[in-house]
Amino acid sequence: MNEITPTPAERAEKLKGLGSSRKRVEDVRFTQGKGNYVDDIKLPGMLFGDFVRSPYAHARVVSIDAEAAKQVPGVVAVLTAADLAPLGLHWMPTLAGDKQMVLADGKVLFQGQEVAFVVATDRYAAADAVELVEVDYEELPVVTDPFKALEPDAPVLREDIADQKEGAHGARRHHNHIFTWEQGDREATEKVLAEADVVAEEMIYYHRTHPCPLETCGCVASMDKVNGKLTVWGTFQAPHAVRTVASLISGIAEHNIRIISPDIGGGFGNKVGVYPGYICSIVASIVTGKPVKWVEDRMENLMATAFARDYWMQGKIAATKDGRITGLWCHVTADHGGFDACADPTKFPAGFFNICTGSYDIPVAWLAVDGVYTNKAPGGVAYRCSFRVTEAAYLIERMIEVLAIKLGIDAAELRRKNFIRKDQFPYRSALGWEYDSGDYHTAWDKALAAVGYEDLRAEQADRVESFRRGETRKLMGVGLTFFTEIVGAGPVKNCDILGLGMFDSCEIRIHPTGSAIARLGTISQGQGHATTFAQILASEIGIPADNITIEEGDTDTAPYGLGTYGSRSTPVAGAATAMAGRKIRAKAQMIAAYLLEVHDDDVEWDVDRFVVKGAPERFKAMAEIAFAAYNQAIPGIEPGLEAVSYYDPPNMTYPFGAYVCVVDVDVDTGQVDIRRFYALDDCGTRINPMIIEGQVHGGLTEALAIAMGQEIAYDELGNVKTGTLMDFFVPTAWETPHYETDWTTTPSPHHPIGAKGVGESPNVGGVPCFSNAVNDAFRAFGHVHAHMPHDHWRVWKIAHDLGLHG
Ligand code: MCN
Ligand code: CUM
């Protein structure tokens, strides 16, 4: 038989499908200044909004005098709660089932809270007028400590619900208490703890931090009073959900609302929430009949939009003498700030924190999370976190280290001993998850071999000896982490946001000449969806990725989807893309069979064509099939070649990773040098290795930031001490170390192409790894645990408290 040229492998390579390190198609625009961000949108007659914000963390608003502000030339309106109240818009629902003031209604609950909204013809006029709005405040006692907030005589923060005994997630036991969320078997766990050979206990605090994306949050709202249509361009990570919520809140019919997320300059979870700025801009546009733009500045972003973490986690872990873990107990005090505006699936008020048994086969566990109001900004969850998985991974990966110290067992060995084994998958955890697939031992051994683990420990021991002899002032730390992620929310049966099931979607249209457009319910904020989703399709339908346009973020054109966060795009929308592709292929098969004059079953798929079985020289390539779909009357087949898939995943995906970090710590300055960082990620089938590597680099750098210095800190009066980039650490190329990336591939058994998410993994695994490295450096001197962030001062303090400064 003649050899068919080009070969299937050559044809596959041309497609740039799965596994190709295809260059990011977005970058052609981005690197040439052709990105189109919210602030690039300029409409005729557009007005600008700016907020008057509270300087106090807790105060009564006695009066607001906007007369002087209104005299500023160009000022069109000054909105206060009193103006929004008749519309029922002075409060808005939060994603967590709570409600939040849009503009201060009688009191303020955190510094930076929105008090009044000034609208002017010019951004500068709006800012000038903000200065002239006179607000008379009466200060109230401030609570920034969640434990103090729960004391019996703590000030009442939320007067609107002070007497309400039931919250969105069950009973409230104190006026500042939001919910208690309990999982697992308390009795069995406490019995195991009581009878255990060894119990390690620690209070692990994951400090308050902030995603701080390069582009802050903002929108342009434009109400067209003639056709009754409201269009809002905004930095939205979930445009369809915003449309539905906007319709429900405003009463505007949903078909008359169009939400557009243009290019987004980083989201990291910060752009999931609904902020007062959006509501005020929409109202202002309706009132004035003009488009209204609102874009917050850096300080506003850091002070008032969704923060992350602020979790006080008390952990207890039980084990046998030889290091077999027998139980995990955890109680979390979760500081949610002034309103519970956390972004989690409805049934999970603490997100997927119950993944806190991690990668280990732990027979029993119990977990309770208490949500608490304080005088801090609302939000929570955001920041590359997969719904509190970051906190969960930090807890278990610190607790393993604490246990290893207590047992006197090597921490790598302790992990290996307790890993869920390959043959145990699918594995049901004590706190209720079903892990889809994993091969932890293989990944761990590969990671330890790659870094030369034994040698590192030997070197570390030598270093301690040299230190004791006074030959060096630098200690060496080896940070280990093995994490299991849970991404891809989620099965509609247990995951929804405000009642909207968390499926996702893809709609494909093949053009007559064999190129295509696919639209998805997700929205890229830098993840490279236009590049990678085209690759999934290229492999499914045999059209080169370069000939496929990917479009997201316009609710008038994209199919309904729940958006991009929780690394759900690949697990959910990626699956929808593959499934829609398969529908295209099924129809293409019928067309090909017709053209080849054989039965449907007599043709088979071969990379980019259907071939007659046993006669590969007889084929119809996808381009030819596409044209036929539009030019031939085929009996029993509609013209055209389009498909849509709404995909409800049967389960989440469980990516995992093995990270090792080596640091040198200067005992006298507290300076930590990252000598080496090795990251092995397993995200199942890899769509684009180069993009994965980019995601890992970015996530690790954010992890470095969080672990080593980034913090939203408050003083006792509730003043934000780190509200500018002077104080809030954002690493530059200078601080960022070299990363060594690696992988194993354990496909997800339920995902159509076996892919798991990866976007959040490096942050989930990175934070504990950096932190473990710093803590480990002092282990030889009796040190067990110190709170993050490990800035120079705190590291110096560890050394000081251990008496290492002589
Ligand atoms: N990918 C791949 N192969 C896989 C898994 C993923 O090639 N097996 C690719 C995807 O096709 C996609 C990227 O990696 O191009 C990330 O995919 P995924 O893990 O599905 O995550 P999402 O696309 O849903 O992105 C969300 C995730 C989250 S929740 C945060 S927070 C975060 C992150 O992505 N925010 C980011 N990475 C970010 N990267 C940038 N540049 N900007 C942000 O705001
Ligand atoms: Cu939790 S940050 Mo991401 O889910 O957008």
From TrEMBL:
Keywords: Copper, Metal-binding, Molybdenum, Oxidoreductase. It catalyses: CO + a quinone + H2O = a quinol + CO2. The keyword Oxidoreductase applies. It comes from the Bacteria. GO terms for molecular function: anaerobic carbon-monoxide dehydrogenase activity; carbon-monoxide oxygenase activity; copper ion binding; iron ion binding; molybdenum ion binding. Its EC number is 1.2.5.3. Its cofactor is Mo-molybdopterin cytosine dinucleotide; Cu(+). PANTHER family: ALDEHYDE OXIDASE 1-RELATED (PTHR11908:SF132), XANTHINE DEHYDROGENASE (PTHR11908). Dimer of heterotrimers. Each heterotrimer consists of a large, a medium and a small subunit. This is Carbon monoxide dehydrogenase large chain. It comes from Thermohalobaculum xanthum.
